[in-house]
Structure formats: C-alpha cells, structure tokens
Amino acid sequence: MKLFAGRRKRTLSMMMLVGWIVGGTACQQQETKVKVYAAPEGIELSAAYQVTVEGQELAIFKTKVATKDPVPRLNHSRSRFGFASFGSFDMGAEAVQVTVTYPKPVDSVKILPSSFGIEPTIAGNTVSFEVAQPQHLTIEFNGDWHESLHIFANPMEQNVPSSDDPNVIYYGPGVHEVTHVEVKDGQTVYLAGGAYLRAVVDPDEAKMEKVIGQNQTPPTFFLEGTNMTIRGRGIIDQSAIPKKKRRYTIFAQHSDQVSIEGVTIVDPSHWTIPLQASDNLHVDNVKIIGWRGNSDGVDISNSRTALVENCFMRTLDDAVVVKSFPGKGEVRDIHTRKIVVWNELAHALSIGAEIHENVSNILFEDCDVIHDVGRETALRIYHCDDALISDVTFQNIRVEEARRLISGWIGKTRWTESEERGNVRNVLFKDIVATSAPIDTTLTGFQDGTDWKPYIIRDHASMQLIGFDEEHTIEGVVFDNVVLDGKKVTADQVKINEFVKDVNFE
Questions:
Q1: Quick check: 350 and 315 in contact, CB under 8 A?
Q2: What is the pLDDT of residue 329?
Q3: What is the pLDDT of residue 27?
Q4: How far apart are CA 230 and CA 249, in angstroms?
Q5: HEC states along 140-206?
Q6: What residue ranges do the domains of the chain occupy?
Q7: 269 and 292 in contact (C-beta within 8 Å)?
Q8: pLDDT of 5-34, one tens digit each?
Q9: What's the whole-number average pLDDT of the chain?
C-alpha cells in the first residue's frame, strides 16, 4: 500500500518555515534565572491562590471559563460561567521552584499534563514543585478540575524591540484600551510584560461594523502584508466586547511571514486567531482561555506552511482547526506540535467542518489533551463539503480523558454549503494514548450530522470512520499503536461503515 507518499513534500516546506523562524531570531545568552512581571494597577487579581517562583511573588489574574454544569455549557450558555486563575513568568536554562498556597488544607493535587511527570510536595495548604523547562501547567486542588490554576512558564525573551523603533507598535506596562489596530509590512506589535490591553468597541458602531459585517466588529489586530509580528508577554483581554458582538482577536489574511509569539489572550468573543489565505505562519507560546461560543483557538484556512507550537488553549470551541473556504486557495503543510489543550465543547485537534478547497499534508504531533469534556471528538476529520482531504497524521498524542476519541466523517451538516460531497485519503493515527472519561449520565446530547441525538453511554471512548457513499469515501487509514485504557485499539472498537476502505490496525 502506497500510504503517505505525498508527505515528502511537507518536509521541505517545514524546513523552509523553520529556516525563516530561526533565521529571524538571533541567540542571546540568558543570564537571568527567572523574571516576573507586576500586575498593572486597576486590574482585579485572583484571591484563590498565592504563587511564588524562586521566592518572587507571581501576579495571578482571573478570567471567566465555561460553566462546570454540562447542560448549559454544551448549549453555549452566555449567562453561566466560572473563574479560573492564571499567571506567567519567564525562565532561563535552570530549573525553578514554584510554591502555591491554597486557601484550604490540600488533601490532593494534580499537575497536568501528566506526561510532564511533575511530582509536587504538599505541606498543609502549600504545594511546591520544580519546573525544569518552559511549559504550561494546570494545577487542580482537592479534586476541583474546573476552577483550576494555570501557570505559564515562558522562555526568556530574545531581541526585545525598542519603543523608539518606528516599525514597532509598543505597549509598555500598564492598562491600554485598544479598538482596532492595523499592522502593515515589516511592523511589530510588542506587548511588554505587565502590559494589559483591554479590547473595546469603537463608539461609532457603523464605522466599525462596515468592515466586517452585521454584529461583528473588526479584529483587535488586523494583519495584511509581509513580515509582521505580534509578540511579548502582555495580556489581551476581550471581555469588554459585548455578548452580541463578535470580534476576532488577531486576524491575518493575504499575508506572508507572520509571527505571533508569547502573548496571553483571555475571554475572546469569537475566533481568537484566524489565519486565512496566507503563507509562512508561526504561532508560538500563545496562551488562550475562552468560554464564549465560537471562541476557537487558532483557525488556519486556505493557507500554506504554518507551524503552531508550544501553546496552551482552554477554549469552548475548537482549539486548533484547519478549514478551507471557497475560492481562497488550497491548504497544505500545516504542523501543530507541543501544545496543551483543554477541550470544553468541540474538537481539540481537527480538520473541518468547512472544506471547499483541497487540504493536504497536515500533521498534529506531540500534544496533550488534558481535559475533553465536550460533545464532539478530540481528534477529528469533519468533512462537510466537497474537496479532497489527504495525507493527515495524528501522532504521539496523549488524551487524559476521552469521550469521543477519533472520528473521520463525511456528510452534510448545518455548515454544509456545497451540493457535492468530498473524499478523505491517507490518514495515520500513530502512538495515541488515551484514557476513557468516566461515564456522565447528565450529558444530554451531541450533534451528529444535522440532528441532536442522545448520548450513547459507553464504558470506553468512541471511535468512528463514516464515509458518505460509493463516490465519497474514506480510504487508507492506519491505526498504529493507538492505545485506549491500556490496550491497543482493535477493529471491533471502531464503528466503520461500508463507505470506508483499506483500514489497517498495526
């Protein structure tokens, strides 16, 4: 079987992208062990945790997250929510000691992802542990998985831009109100550590809405051009955008060489980082916490040669998703690696639903899904239109709680726009390790096709491959060392219909 013959093309494209990334960043010696940033005045901080890093107090912010109650969460509730806490620091090459003080005696603590292997020490209401390298952690006390603490350990910044540079849009420490910023060729937007950007709506609604359309204001940052960067250690807060308005946080289109690095984005009101019809894209070390409907993480559509890495995403909707809209060009050579995902509603790593132009050479690898509490599937190809999806790999992925683990699906849904259906060819699921979530009988339903259907209560996470008809099929699928609940997945665990061909379990 000539499976994945087309993947050789991806290697060259990815090398070109990595060359651009490395070539644009000079190495500098890291002299500081740890760096923390003071919270700006006027920002309400979290009272749930006190955190120190190497004895320095860490500012802990709070932000809304989706409600713990599954029924309103799965129905995109805008009136019910919880609060999570988060803080970040920069670290050099040496390990650092982190101490967290909790308001109550600590009976148990869990540090996720489990694959990081961090062992905490508990003393009364204090927990301490070592962070050996930059990574993004979620800490849960006494079994409370919902209103948890997120700690983001960043690498030290390199080549910090100057506020005097005319090509730099500079936001220093403090609170800034931002409506709509257009980024042009060669420009860098820099959010210094301690900078807190409040996204607000321009009072002139007509002026703002005419760019995008009804009920949607222009993005906070709009990039169109060549060699553009948004970076730093600051925070972008979208919470002031009204419930009925939708706004992208960072939107790039028709662009080449775009880099987005280091920032934290909270309470996005719509897709957080849509990247459309562009080339040579790099999203690195971005942290996203969203709870509203359609608060996707990174949406890559009609673009070529993109790398998403080292990120954290706790979103109500898709975390990293690949799409293609009609007439905007193919999608190819998309690479996602080393990200941590908390999937609140939809998909963790996926392709679809909108697929109008061909999609090829897509790689998701070395990622952790620490929670999967939604109604959709963690790893999915969701084909609702008429193009060809080919050469897709999900590899070295750990899912700590799975309800629906894997899905390849062709069909019609509420998002379908084309009359014709498409095809899926050459898909590899390799070295996937997952644990089934506990059965939750309070979950009321999920969307499959165009209908809401009741949950099927299972004792293991479900998997499916569903083609549409004889001309619109899924072909060439390999399950290579997919392990669920400690055992390798076999054919009888995957629902496969008659329009799926050439499936192998290795």
A1: no
A2: 96
A3: 39
A4: 12
A5: EECCCCCCCEEEEEEECCCCCCCCCCCCEEEECCEEEEECCEEECCCCEEEECCCEEEEECCCCCHH
A6: 43-155, 160-232+234-248
A7: yes
A8: 344 344 435 444 544 554 444 334 345 899
A9: 88
Rounded CA gap, 491 and 505, in Å?
Answer: 7
Domain 43-155 has CATH 2.60.350.10: yes
Running DSSP on this structure, what letter comes out for residue 471?
A: T
Instruction: Give the tens place of pLDDT for each residue, 208-239.
Output: 555 555 556 789 999 999 999 999 999 999 99
Q: Is 289 helix (H, G, I), strand (E, B) or coil?
A: strand
Q: How far apart are CA 373 and CA 378, in angstroms?
A: 10
pLDDT of residue 376: 84
**What is the DSSP secondary-structure string of 290-332?**
--STT--SEEEES-EEEEEES-EEEESS-SEEEEE-TTS--EE
Whether the CB-CB separation of 98 and 51 falls below 8 Å is answered with: yes
Token reading at 335 = 């690479």
- 229 within 8 A of 184, measured Cβ to Cβ: no
Q: At 53, which amino acid appears?
A: V
Residue whose pair of structure tokens reads 């662009």 in the numeric block: 255
